[in-house]
Amino acid sequence: MINETYKEMLGKKSVIRSLSEFATKRGTEIGYDNVFDYSLGNPSVPVTENFTKVMINLLQHENPMALHGYSPTLGNPAFKEAVASSLNRRFAMSYKPTHIFPTSGAAGAIAHALRAVTKEGDEVIVFAPFFPEYIPYITGTGAKIKVVKADTKAFQINFEEFEKALTSNVKAVFINSPNNPTGIVYSEETIKKLADILRDKSKEYGFDIYLISDEPYREIVFDGKTCPYPSKYYDYTLSCYSFSKSLSLPGERIGYVAVNPAIPEAETIVAMCGQISRGTGHNCPASIIQQAVAKVIDETSDLSVYERNMNILYDELTSLGFEVVRPGGTFYIFPKALEDDAVAFSQKALKYDLVLVPADSFACPGYFRMAYCIDTEKVERSLDALRKFVKTEY
User: Beta strand pairing status for 354-355 and 36-37?
Assistant: First the structure.
């Protein structure tokens, strides 16, 4: 007999992927340049020139077995050292290589972090709106997801609802800042208040509540600002990162879990991640990519296009009457639809070759997401379609 859980999931395909597939099919009919596809968060800027040079140099000069053989179970030592050193320089932390576990992107990091600090039946809190894949990430471990309603005024944490939800059944709290889908960056005030509550409740309940921080957009922050690093504010934090966005390497699947050194069992948790890999078939990301990223650890691609695109869309959307909180980072913007039913709104937009993602699956009905990781020229051309859509339909 086949597994009914995964069979059932076939009927619940990702809305994002379905719309992306629609855009691709429509592109074969009218040319993809004429489809204004804001569905998929796929980085649109090239990897750094230096990364390419590093890869070529490794292929030309490094021992092939070192490049293409298995890396150690707990990861390549040079990569772990580079990550720890970078985090220490940037955030005044005290990581050692033994606190870093390389993973297949942020998704792999999350999968390990969740399994390391929860068991079947435990509850994990997430804050709406959130990336829909968090649901299978969490429930796939045997834990239960507990959703806190969104604060739609600012899309910071809804602390009143959070404190109601934070019962003794909750063993971990899951955050994502800068946030997909809103583009909002949690303020230092928000992170401090979250940390205070977690400390108080951990003391009250007699166990440590873990904070799992999903941080793949950490480097895409606007207006010259920086993103607060949650591990600086709360000891029991597992930081989950990916180089998919900062270096534009989504297809290479390289990220890590950084376990806060303040956790007494930090090194044990990293060692546990190696055992979790045995049960999930993870078994380390590619050796060559670990080595290459280690050599460019503090570089990023030219991320400025995302801020430029955001400003263009934010100005246009607000001028057309949309309610939208200005993003502080990422490559997403999250306006309120012009009718209560965001699914119907997004379906109407397809007639104008505008591919917009309704936010029902993000646990925030009535809103929609635009992933503006596309060429600026295409963003600008999409404005006429957006104006026509709004004028004609609303």
Answer: parallel
Joined tokens for residue 87: 């985090």
Strand partners, 258: 100, 239
Residues in the chain: 394
What's the pLDDT score for residue 229? 98
3-class DSSP assignment, residue 265: coil
**Domain 63-295: CATH architecture, name and number where available:** 3-Layer(aba) Sandwich (3.40)
Cβ-Cβ contacts under 8 Å for 146 (sequence gap 6 or more): 123, 124, 125, 126, 165, 170
Bridge partners of 170?
A: 123
Q: What is the H or E stretch that residue 30 is in?
A: helix 15-30
- Read off the pLDDT of each residue in 240-267 and give the average, rounded to a whole number: 97
Going by C-alpha positions, the residue among 386, 343, 394 that lies closest to residue 364 is: 343
82 — phi, psi (to 5°)?
-65, -45
DSSP state of 80: H
Domain at 4-47+302-393: CATH architecture: Alpha-Beta Complex (3.90)
pTM for this structure?
0.95
Q: How far apart are CA 223 and CA 384, in angstroms?
A: 27
Res. 11: pLDDT tops 80: no
For the chain, what is the mean pLDDT? Answer: 96
Residue 167 has pLDDT above 90, yes or no: yes
The domain locations on the chain are: 4-47+302-393, 63-295
- With 0-12 / 13-18 / 19 or more C-beta atoms within 10 angstroms meaning exposed / middle / buried, residue 225 is exposed
Report the alpha-carbon distance of residue 393 to residue 44 in Å, rounded.
Answer: 30
Residue 199 has which token pair?
């400390």
- d(CA 258, CA 99) in angstroms, rounded, equals 6
Q: How is residue 341 written in tokens?
A: 């039913």
The per-residue pLDDT for 119 is: 96
Q: What is the share, in percent, of the chain residues with pLDDT greater than 90? A: 91
Provide the edge-to-edge strand list for the sheet that holds 332-333: 332-333, 368-371, 357-358
> Lowest-confidence range among 67-71, 119-123, 220-224, 261-265?
67-71
